[in-house]
């Protein structure tokens, strides 16, 4: 079995036809992780015994003739999803001792589907970061060039999928945390519509923006597994009840007549030439397959970064209040009184970026500033949402570069948080509007680093987005390219 | 200078739901620490709140009961502060838009009708409890109460005396238990009042600086604390001082209030809409559904008892003190033959006294409404005297049993046979000719002597009314 050149459909067929067992498949991926993880830093926790025992359980189900698209398939999970009996750290010292006593909805769904937990992937601390440099567990390295970041916050999942250490990974996206690392690592990533995937058990960063999603080499792989992830959950009040969809069955869809909207604001200055060129070429592929390009306007687009960096920290400052050292998590060893215990535990347990965002959030919510920051940001958020709705009156899907540049070097944006925040400029609007978004690989820049094309659709248009991405991937093979993983060429 | 007291009350009513405001944990009181706290209550990473539909329904019912506006679109906010018994680091409450707006609570105080205007009622969750004893210098946390649904009912500052505040609180207590949204148990904290008290010179329009007094878990404490706080503020102002806006805690053992925190220490709670919870939308259909589920309210029922059964305002008030009490009375009335006044007297007299003596509630009465009805029927038809009926009541209370069977078995029925009574009286008059002469000479007091003797001779069973009549006739020599 060649893990560099496979798909979930093929793996599933191999398992069903007994070409290999889930145990063998899991063992093969575990060996790869063993081989590459030190270098790449994709995984925080691997537990081969536990994974193999799940694989054996899946083999029994397979032997009984049971089916399902993910039965016996090993899947890597972002360490933001609570996983019963597994260390669940969220990339933070604060939760470095936290073994989750329950399964997140997403984990539960994957378990029911019979997939195997391959390990828990590295991430920016509490998903706050765009480079995976804020993780308490050290950085993840981009498998295309180890000197470069994999993007964030789902850097571990992205790098693991890119390096083919896992055929599929879960991830989360609050401001681009699926799409940006997918672009940096040259894989396909899907951030579903807000409310599509239950947030229960997904450790909260910014509740109104957080959404669980998937990463895999191809759109076909994503379509193959998306049904496992989605569905109404009564434990999440923001979960949306929708009729069940077979995303795989809707994949083959002609691109003829597809109206592709190109937001003027996504093609301005500040885009690296290598990125601009690859995106242009991708659009030409779409045109050649019968799609029409329409220029559209997202007039409030440039406000998305400031709006996001008011709202997300505001919610985070409150969401992270539960980490007080009282019931679980990191507790300072030395303290005088109650207040000091809480203050010190938080001072020691959180890293610098998390503290910066908590302070920002507390500030924008405080008396005298609330109206000027928080309320104003909510108003602008509605304008940004309206921009998208108006744009979708003229087109079926929006496209543009996922990021202004390809992966940057470690430390390059470390000194100025605003520079780092600006790299999310194209992805953030999608979260503010609650829309589904994807990134797919469309080539490489001059340094050999992958370029991502972002696809944005109306609410609940995941099936359409996947089909549009799949149409491109039928005509190209960028998604099938495998990185060097730091091996000498 | 004459000072006027201004009072507003905030009452935390613990809603009678099976599960918590935002989690599926049970809300029963008295379980061992932390057994009624699930992942949501413990605020584990990743858990989410889901509003309790029953709690919202109860809030709607309350709003309807006080004639308030049910907000078609309200929302939940987070009130952020750190405390070990507040697991999330924030309390979910309603701040900008409460579920219930306005409303009026009506009651009579010394016969004078009063109306207290409500500002609002909002839903929120309770915190856990910090236990500072029994841990050798350390503190324990019990999260059983964390997340318990509360309806906070806030009045306008419209009350002008402690008595008025207490009457309001009692009426509110009656109302929330009546409509079944609260068990009303004040010892267990199901109904807790905070009082905002200020004073101002009589005639002044502007309010004085107020203090909020917390921890008032009985009507007596509420009254004492308000009176005490009034005196404290007046003394302070009269000695040239100023009232500082602050939160004070009432200490019932010392009968004093003491400062908890001043406005300067007041925290910035950084309220903002909870992004985990969509707005709370209540449509007309839901409101109508709750309206249909609402029982006849105490004031309306009291009115009906007066017009339909001719009861006094006072009796009607007593009989509508609780729904169980009213139901007991209505069960008696359902007999169709019993005198309402007789029933009211027995309930507010013998029954109330016995319940009080035995520490029971009417729903646990050893004499059920049908049993009392049987007893009263025997008073009405003359079988039992009042005194005998009380005896029978006591026997039924102690031993149970069927009233008529008891009367028969113990020979407790009244002697109403005029032949028997006449014979008895004839014997009596024959035995006491001197007293007969005295009576006939105009000494009316001797009548009582004969009644006493006749009762004794009949072992107390003579029908008093009949006895009186016969005796008077015979003594008059007719």
Automatic annotation (TrEMBL), chain A:
Active-site residue numbers: 78 (charge relay system), 153 (charge relay system), 177 (acyl-ester intermediate)
Keywords assigned by UniProt, alphabetized: ATP-binding, Ligase, Nucleotide-binding, Protein biosynthesis, Transferase
Gene Ontology CC terms: glutamyl-tRNA(Gln) amidotransferase complex
NCBIfam families noted in UniProt: gatA
Protein's UniProt name: Glutamyl-tRNA(Gln) amidotransferase subunit A
Function: Allows the formation of correctly charged Gln-tRNA(Gln) through the transamidation of misacylated Glu-tRNA(Gln) in organisms which lack glutaminyl-tRNA synthetase. The reaction takes place in the presence of glutamine and ATP through an activated gamma-phospho-Glu-tRNA(Gln).
InterPro entries according to UniProt: Amidase, Amidase_CS, Amidase_dom, AS_sf, GatA
The gene coding this protein: gatA
Matches recorded under PANTHER family: GLUTAMYL-TRNA(GLN) AMIDOTRANSFERASE SUBUNIT A, TRANSAMIDASE
HAMAP family associated with the record: GatA
């Amino acid at each position: 079995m060649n893990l560099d050149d496979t798909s979930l459909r093929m793996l599933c067929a191999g398992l069903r036809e007994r070409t290999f067992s889930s145990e063998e498949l899991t063992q093969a991926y575990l060996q790869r992780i063993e081989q590459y993880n030190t270098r790449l830093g994709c995984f925080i926790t691997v537990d081969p015994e536990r994974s193999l025992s799940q694989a054996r359980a899946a083999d029994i189900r397979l032997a009984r003739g049971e089916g399902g698209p993910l039965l016996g398939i090993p899947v890597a999970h972002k360490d933001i999803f609570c996983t019963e009996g597994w260390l669940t750290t969220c990339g933070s010292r604060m939760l470095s001792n936290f073994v989750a006593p329950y399964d997140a909805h997403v984990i539960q769904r994957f378990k029911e589907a019979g997939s195997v937990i391959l390990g828990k992937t590295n991430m920016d601390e509490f998903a706050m970061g765009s480079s995976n440099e804020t993780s308490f567990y050290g950085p993840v390295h981009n498998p295309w060039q180890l000197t470069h970041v994999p993007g964030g916050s789902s850097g571990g999942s992205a790098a693991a999928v890119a390096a083919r250490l896992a055929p599929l990974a879960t991830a989360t996206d609050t401001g681009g945390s699926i799409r940006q690392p997918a672009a940096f690592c040259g894989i396909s990533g899907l951030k579903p519509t807000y409310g599509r995937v239950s947030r229960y058990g997904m450790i909260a960063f910014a509740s109104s923006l957080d959404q669980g999603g998937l990463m895999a080499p191809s759109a076909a792989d994503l379509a193959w597994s998306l049904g496992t992830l989605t569905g109404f959950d009564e434990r999440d009040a923001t979960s949306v009840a929708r009729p069940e969809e077979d995303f795989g069955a809707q994949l083959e869809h002609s691109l003829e007549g597809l109206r592709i909207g190109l937001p003027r604001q996504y093609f301005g200055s500040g885009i690296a030439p290598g990125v601009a060129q690859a995106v242009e070429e991708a659009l030409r592929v779409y045109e050649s397959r019968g799609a029409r390009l329409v220029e559209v306007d997202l007039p409030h687009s440039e406000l998305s970064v400031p709006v996001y960096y008011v709202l997300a920290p505001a919610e985070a400052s409150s969401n992270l209040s539960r980490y007080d050292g009282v019931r679980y998590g990191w507790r300072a060893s030395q303290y005088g009184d109650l207040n000091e215990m809480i203050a010190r535990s938080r001072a020691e347990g959180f890293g610098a970026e998390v503290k910066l965002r908590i302070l920002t959030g507390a500030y924008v919510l405080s008396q005298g500033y609330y109206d000027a920051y928080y309320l104003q940001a909510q108003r602008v958020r509605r304008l940004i949402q309206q921009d998208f709705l108006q744009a979708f009156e003229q087109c079926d899907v929006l496209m543009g570069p996922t990021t202004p540049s390809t992966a940057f070097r470690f430390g390059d944006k470390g000194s100025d948080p605003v520079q780092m925040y600006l790299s999310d400029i194209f992805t953030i609007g999608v979260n503010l509007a609650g829309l589904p978004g994807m990134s797919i690989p469309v080539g490489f820049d001059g340094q050999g680093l992958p370029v991502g094309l972002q696809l944005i659709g109306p609410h609940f248009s995941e099936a359409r987005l996947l089909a549009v991405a799949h149409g491109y991937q039928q005509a190209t093979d960028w998604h099938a390219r495998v990185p060097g993983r730091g091996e000498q060429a | 200078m004459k000072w006027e007291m201004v009072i507003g009350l905030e009452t935390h009513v613990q809603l009678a739901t099976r599960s918590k405001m935002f989690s599926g944990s049970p809300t029963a009181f008295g379980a061992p620490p932390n057994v009624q706290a699930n992942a949501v209550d413990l605020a584990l990473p990743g858990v989410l709140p889901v509003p309790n539909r029953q709690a919202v329904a109860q809030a709607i019912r309350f709003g309807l009961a006080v004639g308030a506006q049910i907000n078609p679109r309200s929302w939940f906010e987070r009130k952020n502060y750190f405390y070990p018994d507040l697991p999330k680091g924030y309390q979910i409450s309603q701040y900008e838009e409460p579920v219930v707006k306005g409303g009026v609570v009506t009651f009579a105080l010394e016969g004078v009708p009063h109306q207290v205007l409500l500002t609002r009622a909002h839903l929120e969750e309770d915190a856990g409890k910090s236990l500072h004893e029994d841990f050798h210098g350390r503190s324990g946390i019990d999260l059983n109460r964390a997340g318990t649904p509360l309806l906070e009912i806030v009045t306008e500052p419209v009350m002008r005396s402690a008595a008025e505040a207490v009457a309001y609180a009692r009426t509110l207590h009656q109302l929330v238990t009546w409509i079944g949204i609260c068990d009303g148990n004040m010892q267990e904290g199901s109904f807790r009042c905070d009082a905002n008290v200020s004073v101002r010179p009589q005639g002044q329009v502007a309010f004085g600086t107020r203090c909020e007094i917390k921890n008032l878990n009985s009507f007596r404490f509420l009254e004492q604390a308000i009176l005490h706080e009034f005196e404290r503020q007046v003394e302070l102002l009269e000695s040239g001082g100023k009232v500082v806006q602050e939160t004070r805690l009432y200490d019932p053992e010392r009968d004093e209030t003491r400062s908890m925190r001043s406005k300067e220490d007041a925290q910035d709670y950084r309220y903002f809409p909870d992004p985990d919870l969509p707005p709370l939308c209540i449509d007309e259909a839901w409101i109508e559904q709750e309206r249909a589920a609402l029982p006849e309210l105490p004031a309306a029922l009291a009115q009906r008892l007066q017009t339909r059964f001719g009861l006094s305002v006072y009796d009607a008030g007593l009989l509508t003190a609780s729904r169980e009490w009213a139901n007991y009375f209505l069960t008696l009335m359902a007999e169709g033959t019993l005198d309402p006044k007789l029933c009211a007297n027995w309930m507010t007299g013998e029954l109330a006294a016995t319940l009080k003596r035995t520490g029971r509630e009417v729903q646990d009465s050893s004499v059920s409404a049908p049993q009392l009805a049987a007893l009263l029927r025997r008073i009405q038809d003359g079988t039992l005297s009042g005194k005998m009926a009380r005896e029978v009541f006591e026997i039924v209370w102690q031993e149970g049993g069927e009233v008529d069977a008891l009367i028969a078995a113990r020979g407790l029925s009244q002697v109403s046979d005029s032949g028997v009574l006449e014979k008895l009286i004839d014997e009596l008059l024959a035995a006491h000719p001197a007293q007969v002469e005295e009576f006939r000479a105009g000494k009316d007091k001797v009548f009582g002597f004969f009644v006493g003797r006749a009762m004794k001779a009949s072992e107390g069973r003579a029908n008093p009314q009949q006895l009186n009549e016969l005796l008077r006739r015979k003594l008059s020599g007719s």
